[in-house]
Amino acid sequence: xxxxxxxxxxxxxxxxxxxxxxxxxxxxxxGSQVITEKFVSLNDYEFRQADFNKPDELIYxxxxxxxxxxxxxxxxxxxxxxxxxxxxxxxxQVEICRTVMAGDIIRHHVSLDVRKESxxxxxxxxxxxxxxxxxxxxxxxxxx
Length: 144
Known about the structure:
The chain is α+β, with helices and mostly antiparallel strands and 144 residues long. The protein is built from two helices and eight strands; from the N terminus they run H-E-E-E-H-E-E-E-E-E. Strands 1-2-6-7-8-4 form a six-stranded antiparallel sheet. Strands 3-5 form a two-stranded antiparallel ribbon. Strand 6 (105-115) and strand 7 (119-128) form a beta hairpin.
């Protein structure tokens, strides 16, 4: 395993979420912007009761994609040098553009718009391939 991958796993590991709510599988970039991936697998907890012969039961819930984006945005707090507990204050203009299915890979692109003493504001998109799945404007995360 490459050293960078081990470091990224350690960063994901300090996330206060635990199974079944760890919704970031891979960090691609963690700098001026955050790019992460979530692999939507048939093994996901969400599909434990799914009938694999019914396509509607293989749709990944939008709220889990949004939560995964929020967890990705929380990575901006990892570099401030202290242990913080982030929470979402508000989120404006969330636009759902496409359905995400089991087997898709969601890539979150998160940009830091504002950093203050007790909150950050981010924006970005969740994509599947080249298609926008969800876009986000003015997501405010507080931390304590």
